[in-house]
Design brief:
Oligomer: single chain
CATH class: Alpha Beta
Radius of gyration: 14 Å
Distance between the termini: 18 Å
Order of helices and strands: EHEEHHE
Largest sheet: 4 strands, antiparallel
Shape: globular
């Protein structure tokens, strides 16, 4: 089995934008869970410590093909919701670190 690919998104969110961003994240993850190649997902919120990120999301994918399908599906969902991620992040002062990762050998 090929090594999984992880999408990890980290968000530093001002309080006024918290509810809206969390709502969209939850809808997005509900979609992702149903897509082929999604092994697991998580949404976590910082509860203690000096870290700057409010929310961190993780999705584990089987393959690059699964990721390509997910990208298309998420774009369609966001379009249906009238949600423009870059514009929303900028307008609300949200600092986001969005990237794909592969596991390293221990």
């Amino acid at each position: 089995m090929p090594a999984p690919i992880f999408r990890i998104d980290c968000f530093a969110v001002p309080e006024p934008a918290r509810a809206k961003l969390l709502s969209v994240i939850r809808e997005t993850h509900a979609l992702l869970r149903r897509l082929p190649g999604c092994r697991r997902d998580m949404i976590v919120e910082q509860v203690e410590g000096p870290g700057k990120y409010t929310f961190v999301t993780l999705v584990e994918w089987d393959s690059q093909d699964a990721i390509e399908g997910a990208i298309k599906a998420v774009r369609a969902l966001h379009k249906d919701l009238g949600f423009d991620p870059p514009a929303f992040l900028k307008a609300n002062g949200i600092d986001a670190d969005l990237a794909f990762y592969r596991p390293l050998a221990a």
